[in-house]
Amino acid sequence: MLTEIPLAVAASAFFALTFIFSRLATREATPVFGGFVASATVTLLYLPWIAASVPMSAFANPHLLWFVGLGVITPSISRTFQFAGVQRIGAAPSGILRGLGPLFSSSLAVLLLGEQLTPVLALGTALIVCGIVVLSIRKDEIRSWALTGIAYAIGATLIWVMRDLIIRYSSPDVPYKTLAIFVMAGTSSIVMALVLANSKSGRKDFTGKGLFYFVLVGFASFSALTSLFFALEEGRIVVVTPITSAQPLFVLLFSRFLPQGMEPLTPLMVLGAAFIVAGGALISLT
Predict the structure, then answer these.
(1) How far apart (Å, rounded) are the C-alpha atoms in residues 231 and 238?
(2) Given this model, what pLDDT does residue 81 score?
(3) pLDDT above 70: residue 58
(4) Under 8 Å between Cβ of 51 and 182
(5) What are the backbone dihedrals phi and psi of residue 203, each rounded to the nearest 5 degrees, phi first?
(6) Nearest to 103, CA basis, from 54, 157, 30
(7) Mean pLDDT throughout 222-230?
(8) I need a labelling partner for 20 at 20 to 30 A (CA). Which of 9, 13, 47, 220 fits?
(9) What is the largest distance, in Å, between two alpha-carbon atoms of the chain?
(10) Distance from C-alpha of 26 to C-alpha of 84, rounded to nearest angstrom
């Protein structure tokens, strides 16, 4: 427990950095191009680590197929659903539904993996969900609650939730966690390369600055995934996922240091941050 919480906090912070760098990068390059560069960067960063520490026999582990599947659906399909949801109902409602991720993950972890959700963990998770929802509220961005948009947003959330469930479920059967991440990132790179090859604008509309920022997304993703995998190896989903889902809090903090991301600090932001911090503090006490 003493190890899983700092690892989960680190994962949350690094995932937030991927959002910050992505926001800067998409001004200079397309998301399709960025998805390929970020995934390829993660794969290349793991390559020497794999070559130095993982025997060739480990590649024959059939449980790695779980991570091939994860590489196909994340981030390509999950981000497609996310973008479709934002397009139909707006960023704020999509963010609110994304905030339900810890609730879904904790419920599925109890039902499918037999994890125990104590009253303190339940209260901490509820506070984090409330905080994420509050931080996602933007009155000028709320357009509608169309059923198709809701379905896409919830679909994206469930895919991210299933990522954590699969990692936790298959973790005992994959002794080399770095190999699992390498397989997932490598598969994602192939999927995004195929998408990029069929996207004329994706291959042309980018600058050197956009490439640089998406490489930074890759470095942040490398750190986030490493922290997440080892956090889930050490601890339970009902503890780790609510904390890693607190990314909006770190996005809010990091955006203070970026002139392009500066926005006025509102009472809702302070309230949302307070909810997340209180929820994280409760979970750390379990």
Answers:
(1) 12
(2) 78
(3) yes
(4) no
(5) -80, -20
(6) 157
(7) 92
(8) 47
(9) 55
(10) 17
Please state whether 117 falls in left (phi above 0), alpha (psi between -120 and 50) or beta.
beta
Instruction: Find out whether 136 and 90 touch, Cβ atoms under 8 Å.
Output: no
CA 257 vs. chain centroid, Å, equals 22
Q: Are 188 and 68 spatial neighbours (Cβ–Cβ below 8 Å)?
A: no
Q: How many C-beta atoms lie closer than 10 Å to residue 2's C-beta?
A: 8
Distances, alpha carbon 138 to alpha carbons 12, 141, 188, in Å: 22, 5, 32
Confidence at residue 41, expressed as pLDDT on a 0 to 100 scale: 94
Q: Give the C-alpha separation, 210 to 190, whole Å.
A: 20
The string of DSSP letters for the chain reads -TTHHHHHHHHHHHHHHHHHHHHHHTTTB-HHHHHHHHHHHHHHHHHHHHHHH--GGGGG-GGGHHHHHHHHIIIIIHHHHHHHHHHHH-HHHHHHHHTTHHHHHHHHHHHHH-----HHHHHHHHHHHHHHHHHH--GGG-----HHHHHHHHHHHHHHHHHHHHHHHHGGG-S-HHHHHHHHHHHHHHHHHHHHHT-HHHHHSB-HHHHHHHHHHHHHHHHHHHHHHHHHHHS-HHHHHHHHT-HHHHHHHHHTT-GGG--PPPHHHHHHHHHHHHHHHHHHT-
In the block, tokens 């890693």 appear at 244
> What is the spatial distance between Cα 115 and Cα 106, in angstroms, rounded to a whole number?
8
From residue 174, how far is each of 39, 79, 233, 258 by CA, in Å?
A: 21, 27, 10, 39
pLDDT of residue 147: 80
pLDDT-above-70 percentage for the chain: 85
